[in-house]
Amino acid sequence: MKTRIVLYIIFLLLAFSKSSFSNDQELENKINKNLRCLICQGQSIYDSQSDFAESMKLVVKQKIESGMSEEEIYSFFKIQYGEWILYDPQLNTKNLALWLLPILVFLVGGIIILTKFGVLKKRL
Amino acid sequence: MILNYLGNFALLFCLIISLVIFITSISSLNNKNFFLKKNLIELLFFKFFFTVLSFSSLIILFIISEFSNETVLNNSHISKPLFYKISGTWGNHEGSLLLWLLVLTFFAFFYFLNSKNRPTDERLLTILFQEVIILGFLFFLLKASNPFNIIYPVPKEGLGLNPILQDPLLAIHPPVLYLGYVTTSIVFSSSLAGLIKGNINNLWAKDIKKWVFISWTFLTLGILLGSIWAYYELGWGGFWFWDPVENISLMPWLSLTALVHCVLALEKRSILHSWTVILSIITFTLGICGTFLVRSGILNSVHTFANDPERGLYILFFLFFLIFLSVFIYFIYEDKFELNNKNLNLYTKETSIILNNWFVMYFLSVILIGTVYPIFLEVLSNEKISVGPPFFNKLIIPFLIPFLIFMSIGPNLKWIKNNYFSKKLKLITIFILSIILSTLVSKFFGNTALNITILLAASFYLFIITIKDLIKKGFKNYSQTISHFGFSLLVLSVLLNSIFSNEITSNMRVGDEIKFSDKIIKLQKLENTTEANFLKLIAYFKIEEKNKTELVLEPEIRIYDKPETITSEAAIKTDIFKDRFLVINLVKENEYLNVRYQEKPFMLWIWISAIIISLGGIINIFKKNEKQIL
């Protein structure tokens, strides 16, 4: 019985550690893909093998191990290197046009279509 | 040495002929005197001939490694294999512009030969606009990027071609892409000419359609080739990175895709006259705009190989000139458009084409804004931001879902009037089926986010419906059904690929092994060899799968000497259902190798589906010809 419990606990631990490892790995890859390698030509640190990228990857790994969340890691890098390092532009005042302009194009396109073709307007 | 002069003088002759055509065609337009008609074809032919002469001289200069030529000096060296000496001709800025000019003069000639059923004044005007473009490129070539600059004293050895450009696929990628870009210039010129002469109607659409499809097909194939190259050469294991240079090739493709549909609506239903002209202008300017952004070095991209701000300035000026010219012409002759107050019914093919254009233009604007916004922000506020894949995914995926659904239903509707409700039950049944299918796939094979599951459902829907159309309609409209089927296969393969891709990264020494799901990856040995122009380090990996045969993968690291570059050559084993992708990198001051092993499902189907898409275009080009003969 005792051995059974011990085995069970070991199994649980193994299962847990394995899943947490793969989750960490996935998170690490995801973060690495969203960080720009600053000395490369348009590559993420995930895709680059430069010294800079390699050391950045280590930092990301450490930060994850120390329990920082994805967002915290991004803001850490943002403070260190500026917004240039993030591949996912944030929604703030200076990027407002970046996010809203395409939507605006879509809406204006829709309005033009509706006003040009009368029958559509009648139907709707 | 003599070839330098030959090439240069051929270009000068070309310039003279171009000026002659330009001036005489203007005067013959005013005098209604068409004496030029007989001579024009000869002049166009000679212009083409001289460009061929110039281009051939450059190729020969590359083959014989004549380093008195600056372009050869900067982009070639003696020990380079012959094949890459030839492809090196257009693997650089000057040579690629000369190739652009070559294609441009060829198509001007070819257009004139093949447009006999168009009114003479419209043809002359088209040639006139072509000459404006050709002159722009000729001046640029001769002033700012002459491929025949002479260097004295003659150096003994060249500086070499960037090794990652030494690749068979990349040798044919630029010419194919250029064929696509340059054909859009014919569409541009012809639409402006048609606009001035008030000829934009269904007959014009019927004739220009062929050119639109030629351009679209080449562009599709060109982008495909570039994407395959990036997949195996850049060693990232991806095929699309939302990189600025890739985006720039995608933008004209998107507006051409809109044009392909719009020109059909103009042909069949005589609607969207002005929109067709606007799209033609947009497509061509996007092509030139792409050249500007790539050549000026403004973009921060892995694909930036050669750039020069001064050249960028010239192209920018030329670009603004063309935009100004076309906008000017558009507003002056706008009233020549046929008025159309046609009432459209909601459930018709034309409505779905308008919907298509609406969404495609949205996708285009996302990519355009995402690519140029960081540039403007940096100029205006000196702040640097990066716009990467997450941005594009967030803005495109939600709109892709309705787009795919409309794309499924659209081709099933008829022109003018449609009894939509007769098919409603079938379409809804398939829709429910697709939702079930996608839920099953994402539940059992991966934990995918809700938006991806919905997107998967939409693409299953399109996939099933296009298969149904392919079987049911058969030969009735097969160029459309094949292209649409290809597109649905593409979306589905890309989605499944991104959901089910799997990978492991590790540092390994000889003798090490790592576990990856049910496989064991072993690094068996390393081997050094010397090739013609590089040193090669081959690593032998064995992948053991349970109850299965072993697989040996041999990735390489190449160390080129001219210019000194280290590249990684991925080892890829392609199967019907998945690719196994292994790439190694040197870790500095360490005996370890950095190893990345990836399993990527349905890679082959991404390439195949893009080929199927362009196959539809090819069929349309030839189908048209048959009709004209009859």
What topology does this entry show?
The complex is a heterodimer of chains A (124) and B (630).
Chain A: H1 2-33, H2 51-65, H3 70-81, H4 96-116, H5 118-123
Chain B: H1 2-31, H2 36-63, H3 70-75, H4 82-87, H5 93-113, H6 120-143, H7 168-196, H8 202-233, H9 244-269, H10 273-296, H11 309-332, H12 349-381, H13 389-409, H14 424-445, H15 450-473, H16 478-500, E1 502-508, E2 513-516, E3 519-530, E4 534-545, E5 551-553, E6 556-560, E7 565-569, E8 571-574, E9 578-586, E10 593-601, H17 603-629
Structural overview:
The complex is a heterodimer of chains A (124) and B (630). By secondary structure, chain A is mainly α. Chain A folds into 2 domains: 67 residues, Cytochrome C biogenesis protein (Helicase, Ruva Protein, domain 3, Orthogonal Bundle), CATH 1.10.8; 35 residues. Chain A contains 5 helices and no strands. The C terminus of chain B is likely disordered. Chain B is flat and about 85 Å long. Chain B folds into 3 domains: 159 residues; 226 residues, no CATH class; 102 residues. Chain B contains 17 helices and 10 strands. The two termini of chain B are 53 Å apart. In chain B, a hairpin with a 3-residue loop joins strand 3 and strand 4. With 630 residues, chain B is an alpha+beta fold. Classes of the chains: A mainly alpha (124), B alpha+beta (630). Chains A and B meet through helix 4 and helix 5 of A and helix 12 and helix 13 of B.
